[in-house]
Amino acid sequence: MNPKTWRLPRDPKWWQAKILSVVILVALLGGWQYATSRPAFDPTGKTEDELMLLEFNGDIVMNDAGDYVFNEEKTSGVPGPLLVGKKIVEELSHPFHKNGTNDHGIGHLIFYTVSRFSVGFVLASVVAILVGVVVGLNPVIFHAVNPFLQVLKPISPLAWMPLLLYTVQKPTITAILVVFMASLWPTIANTAFGLSSIDKDYLRVSRMLEFGWFRRLFTVILPAAAPAIVAGLRISFGSALVAVVPAEMLLGELGVGYLTWIEWNNLDIAGVLFAILVVGFVGFLMDALFSKLSKAASYAT
Amino acid sequence: MSVFRRDPFDPDQSLEHQHHAGCGHGHSHREPASPSQCHRERCHQERCHEQECHEQDEQRNTDHDVTQATLSSEDAMSRAVETAVVKAIFGQSDVSRRKVLAAAGAGVVAEIVRGMFPLDTAKAMAMEIGKIEKPDLSIGFIPITCATPIIMAEPMGFYEKHGLNAKVRRASGWAMVRDWAITKEVDAAHMLSPMPLSITLGAGSPKVPFYMPAVENINGQAITLANKHKGVRTAQDMKGFRFCVPFEYSMHNYLLRYYLAEGGLHPDKDVQIRVVPPPEMVANLKAGNVDGYLAPDPFNQRAVYENAGFIFKLSKEIWEGHPCCAFAISQEFAHTHPNTFLALFRSIVDATAYASDKSNRKEIAKAIAPRNYLNQPVTVLEQVLTGRYATGLGGIGNVPDRIDFDPMPWHSMAVWILTQMKRWKHVDTDFDYKTVAEEVYMATKCNELASEMGYEDRTKTYTKHVIMGKEFDPAKPDEYLASFPINNL
């Protein structure tokens, strides 16, 4: 083949890539389904005991007509896309059911996770910005506190969990505090850094204009440091999102992390795949929402 | 119940619990023919239960027509207090009570008893404190078949029957359930029978005094090995294996260690034993990370179902009738909410007795399978509970008591567990076997409630056990401990 034909098309049409994406998706799903499909079950030549064993092991089930068919719920490896699709439809068809203490619909679970996440993140952001301002405005405090921050920052938020559980003793609050710990350090560090590196002329001007401390903080210092603070919040947001799912798994608190865990307990891989998709989707939506907010904040400066 | 209907001051009446087909051995009174119908009656009208006993009593006491009149609940309570006082005065000897009554006359004795003990005050107090202090309860559980009575008591209405609005809350591991119980996140919990002992001793956790009012299940575990080990016959063949158990302080750990040590392997030197949550064991077995485990069901049957392993040995083959999981509650809760605790205790004894009836097992499998409870395929649970199961070796096993349910927390069981804790150095502190066993395991109270409810009263709290052919005498724990060549002492 002539290597010269290996060139990128000069002006790809916008739809070319889209169509290709769809083709790739269909090919992947088709291949996945093909790899996991099985022929119909043939009971001829099997003794009653053998059939019973197959039924005991869930390989076959009796259908309404009284014939044995392969149990499509049970798969030996990763379930096919049809089964996962069925699971998704099933879960989404009753998102707000409550069957007792441990079985709540996916809508509730998302709500629990998002609210747990939001409380922890907002609390941490308020605390972190306040601490960051104090630390960032005073060079002595900054240099005194900086080593502590550097050590505390890399600690995995989940590492705090046993200690938190031991001290606050409430799993619900512990889950919120794990999110809190995850979102604290990046914001403190970035806020402090942003404030300490504000252009000194701004401060001189504000002093010349005889601004009060509060006025100076809100009209000069915080706006000037806003990009750094927002960057810190973004990092915090990401790490808190990563922390909330395992915290729910470990603490048994209802939420999307918990869903992943119980589907795994049941060895229901279709359910695990569904839960993973939910985690991804919720994370994506929250991240998109946060981007919008942070853009608004940056523009305001 | 029946015992309450007898006048304790009547010398011709026996206060001993009568053993007969329906009321014996922890089974309930009903005919097994119509379980679901009778269950509904049990839940919604306690009468079913009482009437049958009542009828049987009448047959037995044909010449004493003391039981025919239906006692009102106040009369019944007053009779219960009288009976308890009389029983306390005469101890367990019913014969001496009858002799004294016959010689002195019932009226005289009743007067003397009233003089000695403020009967009327006691009766008034008993009626006063009948109120449940905290009807809304939360009970932690681990999703395994051992928890059957605790779980099914919710969907099948046993908590409700005893005036409680209890909700069960699923935990994903034993450490979680322990922490929930210690931090009062739940009011009571499903635990492994060694856990209330270890928590009370402060081994592996903060030291918090716990009670174990009742055992949940007996038997119900198995050693499951990976398919590649189908040739294994004895413990010796398992040298170098990597095993999992669900928790350090568990019957699983002690039974596996016992089995290996009896076969000549040191569980800490010749094999690896690690703590892994049961649901992860199946996946680990499938992936070839571990060679086997001694685990609670449904994860043994689940391994067969997943074509990952086979059932090598049921735990009942190691110790027939061993305790496994238990119902536990902090001593603080039991003391601050005595009536709630009693109602809960009764619900558990009641549900356990119901679960022990094999004709109810299929119905129970369906009740506990949904996602709110075990979240498992019904066919797996049915095989575990009915004892008709695929062994994983191509055969079908038929062991009806593969898992059984019996609430009696024998003190001797606690002593055995404590010997094993010492044997493997799971507890450093020195303790007196009897004191700890009797502080934590509520065998006496369990007997009392069982007899009050018409189930079997074992009357004693210590018994000898046989484990792999070796007799354990609870009166001589130190000699027993010294008799093991393999240990960590």
From TrEMBL, chain A:
Keyword Transmembrane attached: yes
Highest taxon listed in the record's lineage: Bacteria
Stretches that traverse the bilayer: 15-35, 119-142, 173-193, 213-233, 240-261, 267-290
Underlying gene: cmpB_1
Recorded GO CC terms: plasma membrane
Record's keyword terms, sorted: Cell membrane, Membrane, Transmembrane, Transmembrane helix, Transport
GO BP terms: transmembrane transport
UniProt membrane topology term: Multi-pass membrane protein
Domain ABC transmembrane type-1: residue ranges: 110-290
Protein name (Swiss-Prot/TrEMBL): Bicarbonate transport system permease protein CmpB
Primary localization class, coarse: membrane
Subcellular location: Cell membrane
Stated family: Belongs to the binding-protein-dependent transport system permease family.
Entries under PANTHER family matching the protein: ALKANE SULFONATE ABC TRANSPORTER-RELATED, MEMBRANE SUBUNIT, NITRATE IMPORT PERMEASE PROTEIN NRTB
SUPFAM superfamilies cross-referenced by the UniProt entry: MetI-like
TrEMBL record, chain B:
TM annotation in the entry: none
EC number, as in UniProt: 3.6.3.-
InterPro entries named among the record's database cross-references: NrtA/CpmA_ABC-bd_dom
Segments of skewed composition (Basic and acidic residues): 1-19, 53-66
A Pfam family matched in the record: NMT1_2
Main localization category: membrane
GO MF assignments: ATP binding; hydrolase activity
GO cellular component: endomembrane system
Coiled coil: none
Region span, Disordered: 1-36, 53-75
Keywords assigned: ATP-binding, Cell inner membrane, Cell membrane, Hydrolase, Membrane, Nucleotide-binding, Transport
Subcellular location: Endomembrane system
Record's protein name: Bicarbonate transport ATP-binding protein CmpC
Organism per entry: Stieleria neptunia
